[in-house]
């Protein structure tokens, strides 16, 4: 045997070892990639299923409906072969959806018969409770004192204006936590809703509704064509049009624990309440067709509503229930 024969034998061994290593890398890149992709799909399916099931836990828990809804979402989103479990906790205010799916591995079995399949799992928990935070575009800059809410939340008509105001019951709110801003903040926030998510944080208040209030409300309602439709009695308690859109008369107002003695002093948001705006054209316009800027007014009634997103807290519930993922 020559030196070169010995070298050819060594090269053959190295090639064989390299092929095995290459197959291992292929197994990692393809099979592990498939596992991660399936895991991502199951996480999304679990999240959607938990949130959908949680809708059935408010205003009173319907465990059968919650479970069947969650399972239907799993079937629609996790694909064939997925098994699910649904459980409830925290006094039936939380729903947990677990999903398991077995997938076939294609390259890993070359290395070992123990790697023919892999079990992929995902789990999500959604909770319902008093809203501690609200998503963007819902909140309008009208703060209401908690004592006023408790004493009037069942009234069929509430008129908040500058004439009949009991000092400290309601008024304009500076929602961004920075004092000042005036109508440049107030007007778009009233017409379109506050553009950012908002939590139970300190805010500032103002004295008296600006003259632009009625014009902003008119723009809000006219833009969506809801002066003659979308009434409280027609669509309560869901406040959703037949086409699935949310009625723009339904807004959220921040509830505060005290009215500051000075505008430079902040106050605390302690919760959020749904409010159904019931201003009519007669409320917002004068006989000559111009906006009535002399008598700014927000008219309507408090409501009960569940909203997806935001955050759930442990504070008092002022009619707005949040549905949110907690893990």
Report on the architecture of this protein.
A hairpin with a 4-residue loop joins β1 (82-89) and β2 (94-104). The chain has two domains: 3-127, no CATH class; 136-308, no CATH class. 33% of the residues are buried. Strands 1, 2, 3, 7, 12, 13 and 14 form a seven-stranded mixed sheet that branches. The chain has a five-stranded mixed beta barrel with strand order 4-6-8-10-9. It is elongated and about 95 Å long. The protein contains eight helices and 14 strands. The protein is α+β, with helices and mostly antiparallel strands and 327 residues long. The model has no long low-confidence stretch (mean pLDDT 84).
List keywords for this structure.
327 residues, 2 domains, five-stranded mixed beta barrel, elongated
**How big a fraction of the residues is strand?**
25-35%
Question: Please, what is the average pLDDT?
Answer: 84
Q: How large is the radius of gyration?
A: 29 Å
Query: Which blocks of ≥5 consecutive residues have pLDDT under 50?
Result: none
Distance between the termini: 68 Å
Q: Based on helices, strands and strand pairing, what is the structural class? A: alpha+beta
| Annotation, overall tally of beta strands | 14
Domain module tally: 2
**Count of alpha/pi helices:** 8
Overall geometry comes to elongated
Main sheet specs:
7 strands, mixed
Write down the secondary-structure element order. Answer: HHEEHEEHEEHEEHHEEHEEEE
Oligomer: single chain
Helical residue percent? 25-40%
């Amino acid at each position: 045997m020559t030196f070169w024969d010995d070298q050819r034998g060594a090269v053959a061994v190295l090639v064989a070892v390299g092929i095995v290593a290459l197959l291992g890398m292929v197994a990692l890149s393809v099979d592990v990639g498939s596992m991660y992709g399936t895991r991502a799909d199951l996480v999304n399916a679990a999240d959607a299923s938990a949130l959908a099931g949680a809708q059935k836990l408010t205003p009173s828990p319907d465990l059968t409906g919650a479970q069947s809804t969650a399972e239907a979402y799993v079937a629609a989103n996790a694909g064939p072969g997925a098994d699910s479990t649904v459980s409830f906790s925290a006094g039936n205010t939380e729903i947990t959806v677990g999903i398991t799916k077995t997938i076939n591995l294609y390259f890993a079995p070359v290395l070992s018969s123990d790697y023919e399949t892999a079990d992929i799992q995902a789990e999500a928990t959604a909770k319902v409770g008093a809203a501690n935070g609200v998503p963007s575009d819902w909140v309008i800059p009208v703060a209401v004192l908690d004592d006023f809410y408790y004493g009037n939340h069942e009234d069929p008509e509430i008129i908040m204006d500058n004439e009949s105001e009991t000092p400290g019951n309601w008024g304009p709110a500076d929602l961004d936590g920075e004092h000042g801003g005036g109508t440049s903040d107030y007007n778009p926030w009233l017409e379109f809703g506050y553009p950012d998510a908002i939590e139970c944080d300190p805010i500032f208040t103002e004295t008296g509704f600006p003259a632009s209030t009625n014009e902003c409300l008119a723009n809000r309602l006219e833009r969506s064509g809801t002066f003659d439709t979308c009434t409280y009695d027609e669509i309560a308690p869901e406040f959703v049009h037949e086409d699935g859109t949310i009625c723009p008369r339904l807004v959220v107002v921040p509830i505060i624990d005290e009215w500051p003695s000075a505008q430079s002093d902040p106050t605390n948001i302690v919760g959020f309440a749904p409010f159904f705006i019931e201003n009519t054209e007669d409320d917002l316009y004068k006989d000559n067709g111009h906006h009535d800027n002399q008598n700014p007014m927000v008219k309507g009634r408090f409501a009960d509503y569940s909203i997806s997103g935001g955050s759930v807290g442990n504070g008092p519930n002022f009619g707005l229930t949040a549905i949110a993922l907690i893990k």
